[in-house]
Design brief:
Elements (H helix, E strand, L loop, with lengths): L1 E6 L5 H12 L5 E6 L1 H10 L4 H6 L3 E3 L17 E7 L1 H8 L6 H11 L3 E6 L6 H12 L3 E2 L13 H14 L18
Parallel strand pairs: 1-2, 1-4, 2-3, 4-5, 5-6
Helix pairs in contact: 1-7, 4-5, 4-6
Bound molecules: flavin mononucleotide.
């Protein structure tokens, strides 16, 4: 299974990193990483990971400017693309089909080939443009998965919250992860 993972310049680059860490342990998955230039900047500002450490988590890496990359073409078989986090700028460019960098071009290809696109859209509060862009892409089958914390699993640390969202994202690929705490109905304490 080929999965494109992109980290763009919204806050929460740790979500993309954690998703890469989970996918690295899954033998049948090959990851293709695209870091936007603002994705790189937020990652450096928000995490203790170096760029090299993040790049080593992926099987293949690409430059955002490289519109000649194989993932820029529908003839290369990719199963899914996850953008985590997805900035409102990247969301907008996908919605209008801009395809002016490898992130929006690869997403455009995913949509035209009717493959799976998962967007961890991150902004708050949301304006009408953001909401309309998400609605338009959702109507085309895109999974809009804002990284919103859940509390029913009693997270104790930020790491617990990040992991839960990363597991829920990987769940969307149809990969069953034993670590995901699933809601099993209300029980008496
Ligand atoms: C520290 C930091 C945090 C940001 N957080 C967000 C955010 O949560 N959501 C968002 O849409 N943009 C956010 N931005 C702005 C984007 O980085 C900016 O719109 C950029 O053009 C996105 O480009 P890209 O999608 O190509 O990475 C943030 C910028 C910085 C420097």
């Amino acid at each position: 299974m080929n999965v494109i993972v992109s980290i763009t310049g919204a806050t929460g680059s740790i979500f993309g990193i954690r998703i890469l860490e989970i996918l690295k342990d899954i033998k049948e998955v090959k990851t293709h990483l695209i870091l936007s230039s603002w994705g790189k900047k937020t990652l450096e500002a928000e995490t203790n990971y170096t760029m090299e450490e993040v790049e080593q988590l992926a099987d293949f890496i690409y430059e955002t400017a490289d519109l000649g990359a194989r993932i820029s073409s529908g003839s290369f078989q990719v199963d899914a693309m996850i953008i985590a986090p997805c900035s409102m700028k990247t969301l907008a460019s996908i919605r209008i089909g801009l395809a002016d960098n490898l992130v929006s071009r690869a997403a455009d290809v995913i949509l035209k080939e009717r493959r799976k696109l998962i967007l961890l859209t991150r902004e708050t509060p949301l304006n009408t443009i953001h909401l309309e862009n998400m609605l338009a892409l959702s109507k085309m089958g895109t999974i809009i998965l804002p990284p919103m914390p859940a509390f029913y699993n009693n997270p104790q640390t930020i790491n617990d919250i990040v992991n839960h969202i990363a597991y829920r994202t990987v769940d969307q690929l149809g990969i069953i992860l034993p670590n995901l705490k699933r809601w099993d109905g209300l029980r008496e304490k």
